[in-house]
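To the wet lab folks,

You asked to see what we're planning to order before we commit. Fair enough. Below is the target structure as tokens, and below that is the sequence we designed to fit it. If anything looks off to you, flag it before the synthesis order goes out.
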């Protein structure tokens, strides 16, 4: 049976986290989830994120997408 323990801590020098609690048993296995509190990362538009991947955006306009899909469909017949 799993139990859940919520502890708030501060990130220490060297990018370390230390957790102390009487509920923790030495030698026991535990899974740790880290949720960072603070300002969220700025959200960027989807197309801006995709544009940064190798290959970038394959189509610049909706018309280019339509033409590509039409060509693919025609090749099926």
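Sequence we intend to order:
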């Amino acid at each position: 049976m799993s139990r859940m323990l919520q502890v708030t801590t501060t990130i220490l020098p060297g990018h370390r986290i230390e957790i102390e609690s009487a509920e923790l048993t030495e030698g026991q296995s535990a899974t740790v989830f880290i949720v960072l509190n603070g300002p969220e990362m700025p959200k960027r538009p989807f197309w801006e994120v995709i544009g940064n991947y190798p290959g970038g955006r394959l189509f610049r306009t909706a018309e280019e997408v339509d033409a590509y899909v039409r060509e693919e469909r025609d090749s099926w017949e």
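Structural context that might help your review: The mean pLDDT is 84. Residues 69 and 75 are 10 Å apart (CA to CA).

Thanks,
Computational group
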